[in-house]
Structure formats: structure tokens, C-alpha cells
Amino acid sequence: MEVELADGVTTVRIDHPPVNAFDLGLVDDAVATVRSIEGPIVLTGAGACFSAGVDLRAIIEGGAGYTDRFLAAISDAFLAVFDHPAPVVAAINGHAIAGGCVLAMAADIRLMSTGLIGLSEVEVGVPFPVAALEICRYAMGTSVTRAVLEANNIDVQSAAQRGWIDEVVAPEELMARAVGIARALGQHSPTAYAAMKVQLHRHAREAIDAGAELDANVKAIWCSDETRARMSAFLGALR
Fold this sequence. Notes:
Largest sheet: 6 strands, mixed
Pfam families: ECH_1
Oligomer: single chain
Family: Belongs to the enoyl-CoA hydratase/isomerase family.
CATH topology: 2-enoyl-CoA Hydratase, Chain A, domain 1
GO molecular function, one term: enoyl-CoA hydratase activity
Organism: Mycolicibacterium moriokaense
CATH superfamily: 2-enoyl-CoA Hydratase, Chain A, domain 1
Keywords: Fatty acid metabolism, Lipid metabolism
């Protein structure tokens, strides 16, 4: 994670080539980074991709123990963004797929310039951890059912029509616009802003906090031989 503070706004850039996929090291770094920041954040990706989601090869090669640690850590990463008391603006500079889409949904405001966005977990053969699904339910509203069950990745204009993103911004204007919004939101009372986020997120947070049994089932499915076979088949089809 690359971090740059300028004029009261911290830009956090996911920098994990080639597609900023999440492995355990990156996720642990993301949690520590976001939790260490005070004030407004702009979250973006390095290169031409915001994030393509979970590094499935790392899951397959790491085994059950790695998968258990990873699922707990990635939920913590989503919640570090979702629970950040100050403004968080996602500057989606390219594809935001699966976990990358969830991370974008965890922000307060989402701007997107190019690429595809969507929740493709069902296509891969894995269910969502509770935190991921509840964050998407909060951000996507009623369209979350279609997003999850169809597992399609859609373009920028379609995402704007569904309300997944707040603005479509030209690539050359994306970062300036995101930083400007984060700075403007940061002018509000920090105490009031944080309190409003807690209230807005209350129902999602209650569902997440009550989801231990569901998450145990999610972990079991991710670790099963059937799921690993599906992951391998999915990766093979990409070649």
C-alpha cells in the first residue's frame, strides 16, 4: 500500500502488480494502513486496475490454514474502510472485481473512470463472508441480489445507473475530483461525521456482528475440496 498525505487528505494506493489482487500480506498491510490514518482518505489502485479481487492461486497453494487467516483478514480490511470515522472516497481507476468491488462499496463515495465492476464470487464458486455481503447490501440497495446471483461484471455507465457509483469521471480528472470531494467532506465536524456514519451503518453492523455462525459455514465452503476444484477450473479457463 502506498500512502501520500497532501493538504489534509491521505491517498492510499493499492500497489500489487499486475492486477492488485488480495493476498494475506496485502490485506494485513491494508488493515494496518487504514487503521493508522486520521482524517479523509482517497482509496485507489496503481496501474490500470483498482483491484481484481482475491488472489485465488494464493488460496489454493496456501491450504486451509491460510484460507482461515485470509478470510478473517479480508473482512477486517473491508471493515477498516467501512468503519473509518472520517470521509473515504474510492477513486476507481479500472476494474473492481469481486473483493475489489466490495472494497469500493465500503467507501462513502465512489467515483469511477473506466473498467468493469461486479461481484463474481458465485461464478468462482465461493460465498461471501458476512462483512462483505452486508457492506454490499448497504451500498447497492435492492440491486445487490442481482449483483450477487448473476455474478456479472458491468461497465461504468451501467454501474452508475444502478447506483453502485456516484459519479463517472474522466481518467485524467479522477484523482483531483476524488481528493476535492474528500477534502470538502473533511470540512464537516469530525465528531458529527463519525456519529452519522455509525448511525447510517448501524443495521449493517448489527448483521455483521451477529454473523459468526454464517462465517464459519463460509470458511468451511472455501476450504472444501469441491471449492478448490472450482477455483482451479476458473483459473484454468482464464489462461
